[in-house]
């Protein structure tokens, strides 16, 4: 598989920017997007910090040149902005392709529309048309002319990488010539209260891989990369050199103490890439900032790389918050930009290492060495663990 | 590489589970279809069962049945399609959080509201660490899961893949959706259809799945791409809901006078209903007979070796092709 699939475009919108360049500027200037709640309708407005995209639905529609957003969810609008950016870049680099499709992912779909209408007891139930996960993908596909094939993954917070995995195979088996892969999620009352009921939200800024971490900051956004067969493109940014999905098979929501699922997915992805662990220059960790995830992921990373031999790593969720199904898509874009710009991003809000792990995340903007191989982890409910490796 | 369907099963509003194609129908007087409840305890412990909503029960029981039939303890991959996911848990959580003004709703409903709860539960029960995907693309949810399963086998990543489609319909959901245009002239339903797709030879061969998003479909070309001429098709299973459904006219005129079965009037319309059609195809090929009650026309055939399944909603179409091995 290695060297066959090229990344030819990328696009992103999240709390630290409305396009790839803005996000990159925020990353290298240590500007977080996590803030007090401004847009989401909830009784918890003063209780939590969120990674909101700093645009209203109307403003997002304006960015897209849409005249009506009737029946269009925020999830769809966010996906449209990022997928359009990614697609335009790919066309600029390599022209149009005969068969183009999109593999997206979302956990909430059009829940933002559903919950507001449910709350208001709207009697015209046609608002439900935007509820299914697949609705946002279909609308994005139509907007960017990627209707030759479209589908949606929902494997919770690992979804975006799984979309990439399905996309790679669509190229390999010639179902498509170009595929936009990634994920999206908008903030909703549903997810905020869901994660709150699980008691894994930090009311302050999240502190991934810190001993004093208290939970995650929920967030929203969308991120997509464009994939094409490497031998059919003129210009590309990097290759997809390895990937894997494995199941922790331990608990519906919690990760196992030894990080078995995470270990298996990283191990298999490395195996596919043909790389030795020492060749990985940067790990973009899942790093949600919950007690359970960071300990389990850290343990698995130590098992792969060896204690004290872990390459520079950081959780960019300390900037963006946890964007659920969008996380892997957004972090794929960040990983690609890390290779393109030879930059390793810092992990914000870190003070004290987690006892027993002997792991310290990178806390500075590193620009002094070449970044050739980046490994990115994304894990989710249902024991779903995914890893992707991008290579120069 | 040839790919086979080693085992198949379906939980539906008819007496399909662990059986062949039924010779008669359950009455179906309700305004929507619910599944005939299997004896879940055969597959799931009572303690676990209590916590599971019907969609999880049906998905898990149907999966465990096909694995048992295939004699497989651990599939190399689990791939599930669901159009609307765990609706009951989603509705419960949403209703509670709205009624109680966001005062700490019950986390169990939230945990189980995620679409991949079904595939996750199967992995948990089997202690299966392998590849685990869930697709949700409305009425092509099962088809894209099936394509993923096929590509995994072609890629040499799996020999046996557990793949299926599952959706649920409740009273609450029915009240919300009954007025929607997309359900006009149909009876909503639910079901689970699961399969073991395999490299190992068996009676039913899986020839492929095509997904077409377009106003017009060149059916002959699509079939040719799957390695078959239209003339060779012995039997068609269509996703029609009504006798004269306009959307199916194009297909029916191309297909001509072939034996034609339908199923949605008897199991209901749901996002992954085509998984039931695939189960029907497996049974007809294995048994080489068609109970009369499923026939849309009265045309019979001497053999049922090549079965074509067609489904369509709006401008989204899917074709699935199954054949009898070594005829």
TrEMBL record, chain A:
Residues 2-392 form the Ketosynthase family 3 (KS3) domain. It comes from the Bacteria. GO terms for biological process: fatty acid biosynthetic process. One of its GO terms (cellular component) is cytosol. It holds the Pfam family ketoacyl-synt. GO terms for molecular function: 3-oxoacyl-[acyl-carrier-protein] synthase activity. Keywords: Transferase. Gene3D superfamilies: 3.40.47.10. SMART domains: PKS_KS. PANTHER family: 3-OXOACYL-[ACYL-CARRIER-PROTEIN] SYNTHASE, MITOCHONDRIAL (PTHR11712:SF336), POLYKETIDE SYNTHASE-RELATED (PTHR11712). Belongs to the thiolase-like superfamily. Beta-ketoacyl-ACP synthases family. This is Beta-ketoacyl-[acyl-carrier-protein] synthase family protein. It comes from Plebeiibacterium marinum. The lineage of its organism: Bacteria, Pseudomonadati, Bacteroidota, Bacteroidia, Marinilabiliales.
TrEMBL record, chain B:
It holds the Pfam family Ketoacyl-synt_2. The lineage of its organism: Bacteria, Pseudomonadati, Bacteroidota, Bacteroidia, Marinilabiliales. SUPFAM superfamilies: Thiolase-like (SSF53901). It comes from Plebeiibacterium marinum. GO terms for molecular function: acyltransferase activity. InterPro entries: Ketoacyl_synth_N, Thiolase-like. It comes from the Bacteria. Residues 44-175 form the Beta-ketoacyl synthase-like N-terminal domain. This is Beta-ketoacyl synthase chain length factor.
């Amino acid at each position: 598989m290695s060297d066959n699939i090229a990344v030819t475009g990328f696009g992103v919108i999240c709390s630290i920017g409305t396009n790839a360049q803005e996000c990159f500027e925020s990353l290298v200037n240590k500007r977080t997007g996590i803030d007090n709640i401004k847009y989401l309708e909830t009784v918890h407005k003063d209780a939590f910090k969120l990674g909101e995209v700093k645009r209203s639905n109307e403003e997002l529609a304006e960015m897209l040149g849409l005249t009506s957003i009737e029946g269009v969810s925020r999830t769809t609008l966010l996906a449209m902005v990022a997928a359009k950016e990614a697609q335009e870049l790919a066309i600029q680099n390599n022209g149009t392709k005969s068969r183009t499709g999109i593999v997206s992912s979302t956990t909430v779909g059009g829940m933002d529309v559903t919950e507001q209408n449910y709350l208001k007891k709207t009697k015209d139930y046609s608002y439900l048309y935007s509820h299914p996960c697949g609705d946002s993908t279909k609308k994005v596909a139509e907007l960017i002319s990627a209707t030759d094939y479209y589908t949606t993954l929902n494997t919770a917070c690992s979804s975006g990488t799984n979309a990439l995995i399905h996309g790679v195979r669509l190229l390999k088996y010639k179902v498509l010539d170009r595929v936009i892969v990634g994920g999206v999620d908008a903030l909703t009352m549903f997810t905020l209260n869901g994660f709150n009921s699980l008691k894994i939200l930090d009311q302050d800024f999240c502190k991934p891989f810190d001993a004093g971490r208290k939970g995650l900051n929920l967030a929203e956004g969308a991120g997509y990369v464009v994939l094409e067969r490497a031998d059919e493109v003129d210009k590309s940014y990097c290759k997809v050199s390895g990937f894997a999905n494995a199941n922790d098979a331990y608990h519906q929501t919690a990760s196992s103490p030894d990080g078995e699922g995470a270990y298996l997915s990283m191990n298999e992805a490395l195996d596919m890439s043909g790389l030795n662990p020492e060749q990985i220059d940067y790990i973009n960790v899942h790093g949600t900032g919950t007690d359970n995830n960071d300990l389990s992921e850290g343990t698995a990373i130590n098992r792969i790389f060896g204690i004290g031999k872990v390459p520079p790593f950081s959780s960019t969720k300390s900037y963006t918050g946890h964007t659920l199904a969008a996380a892997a898509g957004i972090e794929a874009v960040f990983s690609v930009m890390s290779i393109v710009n030879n930059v390793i991003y810092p992990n914000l809000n870190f003070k004290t290492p987690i006892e027993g792990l002997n792991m310290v995340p990178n806390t500075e903007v590193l620009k002094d060495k070449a970044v050739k191989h980046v490994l990115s982890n994304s894990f989710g409910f249902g024991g779903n663990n995914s890893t992707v490796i991008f290579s120069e | 590489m040839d790919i086979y369907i080693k085992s198949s099963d379906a939980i539906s509003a008819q007496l399909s589970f662990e059986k062949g194609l039924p010779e008669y129908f359950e009455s179906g007087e309700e305004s929507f279809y619910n599944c005939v409840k299997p004896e879940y305890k055969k597959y799931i412990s009572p303690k676990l069962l209590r916590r599971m909503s019907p969609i999880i029960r049906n998905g898990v029981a149907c999966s465990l049945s096909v694995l048992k039939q295939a004699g497989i303890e651990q599939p190399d991959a689990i791939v599930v399609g669901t159009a609307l996911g765990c609706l009951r848990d989603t509705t419960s959580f949403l209703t509670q959080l709205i009624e109680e003004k966001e005062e700490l709703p019950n986390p169990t409903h939230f945990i189980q509201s995620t679409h991949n709860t079904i595939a996750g539960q199967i992995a948990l029960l089997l202690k299966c660490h392998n590849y685990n995907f869930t697709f949700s693309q409305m009425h092509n949810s099962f088809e894209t899961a099936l394509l993923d399963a096929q590509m995994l086998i072609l890629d040499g990543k799996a020999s046996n893949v557990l793949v299926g489609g599952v959706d649920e319909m409740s009273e609450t959901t029915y009240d919300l959706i009954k007025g929607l245009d997309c359900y006009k002239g149909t009876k909503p339903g639910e079901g689970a259809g699961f399969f073991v797709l395999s490299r190992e030879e068996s009676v039913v061969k899986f020839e492929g799945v095509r997904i077409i998003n377009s106003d017009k479909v060149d059916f002959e070309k699509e079939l040719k791409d799957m390695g078959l001429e239209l003339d060779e098709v012995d039997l068609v299973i269509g996703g029609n809901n009504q006798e004269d459904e306009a959307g199916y006219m194009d297909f029916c005129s191309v297909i001509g006078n072939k034996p034609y079965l339908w199923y949605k009037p008897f199991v209901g319309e749901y996002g992954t209903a085509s998984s039931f059609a695939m189960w029907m195809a497996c049974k007809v090929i294995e048994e080489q007979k068609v109970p009369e009650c499923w026939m849309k026309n009265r045309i019979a055939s001497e053999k049922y070796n090549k079965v074509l399944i067609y489904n369509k909603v709006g401008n989204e179409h899917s074709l699935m092709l199954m054949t009898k091995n070594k005829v």
